[in-house]
């Protein structure tokens, strides 16, 4: 129960506990109470998971993402974009929402309860990284150390990506580090404002929380079962493996970008969110990323290099994309670019074609250290 699924526009999470080095005044405390009242919507039902997380079942039309200023006039799409285009002899096999479901009633969506502690951390963090936080909720990119080992498809027109993410639980060295795996789609460089959609998992060491949950609203949930930010277990090194199947695709009619996990529809990023518009992804990355305020850096993936193969190193498989709007998901062109920031800490293999069912798979990660 240490891993967390995250998705967000403009990237993901993270909020940091700065070694408890903050204090808040009475005024600040009152301000936080006020914020909590705004953030936490009235619950139709409240669910506590086995691991102690609290989820409120909130009316789908009153979910907190709608507080986003760009979604003022947004009408929630309650039915999902139906993706017929998966190649039929290779359907995305999934275990449904098992592991993510919390059992909210139909007409509601599960929203993780924001606690005062989350806000205090967010505040402490934003004092350190005001720029990153305020401007784009992308503290990963603005931290002192941000390293990745990934594969990139450039100079393509991509309307959707489907892949299977192997999930691990890299051991962090301090609560303010982050390590995860993700798929990242963006409009690429060259535009005034870059639009990004990113999906993946990252370690929850109980001192981090999703910026999605608190400060980056915008993803509209449709599923009454799937709970963003729900913790779930990771794979065992050389043992049982845990995968999640992720699909992001643009609905060419509405212009919204839809997310499916394990074959089930989760929700969408409304087109209004993308100030610079998001017609097509010209930059797509798959791989691992770490963030650390200092050396040594945490492990990435399973903590082992790609040379250990499946079971030893973390993988992403079933790599497919849509190169036409609303078109078929086809195997990727394996001519991808490897981008590795610190090869003695983390590295990445090129994709290899394993089978018709699995398609292309690559491995990434490493132990970290002095990077
Ligand atoms: C992380 O996991 C711990 C233990 O399972 C849980 O208590 C905590 O609420 C989780 N944190 C978040 C942000 O989900
Ligand atoms: C994991 O499996 C690989 C390949 O079978 C083996 O070389 C390695 O020693 C194993 N490692 C551990 C810690 O069991
Ligand atoms: C990754 O690093 C390991 C350990 O140094 C090495 O054995 C392997 O060949 C490297 N792989 C690539 C693709 O560089």
TrEMBL record:
Alphabetical list of InterPro entries matching this protein: Glutamic_endopeptidase (IPR053168), Neprosin (IPR004314), Neprosin_propep (IPR025521)
Domain Neprosin PEP catalytic: 139-371
Domain of life of the native organism: Eukaryota
Protein name in the entry: Neprosin PEP catalytic domain-containing protein
Recorded coiled-coil stretches: none
Signal peptide start and end residues: 1-20
UniProtKB keywords: Signal
């Amino acid at each position: 129960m240490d891993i967390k699924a995250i998705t967000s526009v403009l990237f993901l999470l993270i909020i940091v506990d700065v070694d408890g080095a903050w204090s808040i005044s009475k005024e600040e405390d009152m301000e936080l109470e006020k914020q909590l009242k705004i953030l936490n919507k009235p619950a139709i039902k409240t669910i506590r998971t086995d691991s102690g997380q609290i989820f409120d079942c909130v009316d789908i039309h009153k979910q907190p993402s709608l507080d986003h200023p760009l979604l003022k006039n947004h009408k929630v799409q309650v039915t999902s974009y139906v993706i017929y285009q998966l190649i039929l002899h290779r359907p995305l096999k999934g275990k449904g929402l098992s592991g993510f479901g919390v059992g909210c009633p139909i007409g509601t969506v599960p929203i993780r309860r924001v606690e005062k502690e989350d806000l205090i951390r967010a505040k402490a963090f934003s004092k350190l990284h005001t720029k990153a936080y305020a401007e784009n909720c992308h503290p990963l990119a603005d931290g002192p150390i941000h390293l990745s080992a990934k594969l990139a498809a450039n100079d393509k027109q991509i309307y959707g990506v489907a892949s299977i993410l192997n999930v691990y639980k890299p051991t962090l060295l301090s609560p303010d580090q982050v390590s995860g795996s993700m798929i990242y789609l963006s409009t690429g460089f060259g535009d005034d404002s870059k639009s990004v959609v990113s999906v993946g998992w990252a370690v929850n060491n109980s001192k981090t929380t999703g910026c999605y949950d608190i400060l980056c609203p915008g993803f509209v949930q449709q599923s009454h079962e799937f709970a963003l930010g729900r913790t779930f277990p990771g794979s065992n090194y050389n043992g049982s493996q845990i995968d999640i199947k992720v699909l992001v695709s643009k609905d060419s009619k509405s212009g919204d970008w839809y997310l499916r996990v394990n074959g089930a529809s989760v929700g969408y990023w409304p087109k209004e969110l993308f100030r610079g518009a998001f017609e097509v992804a010209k930059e797509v990355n798959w791989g691992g990323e770490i963030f650390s305020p200092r050396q040594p850096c945490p492990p990435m993936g399973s903590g082992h290099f790609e040379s250990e193969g499946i079971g030893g190193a973390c993988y992403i498989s079933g790599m497919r994309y849509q190169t036409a709007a609303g078109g078929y998901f086809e195997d990727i062109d394996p001519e991808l670019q490897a981008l590795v920031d610190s090869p003695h800490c983390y590295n990445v293999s090129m994709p290899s074609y394993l089978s018709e069912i699995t398609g292309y798979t690559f491995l990434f990660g490493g132990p970290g250290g002095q990077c």
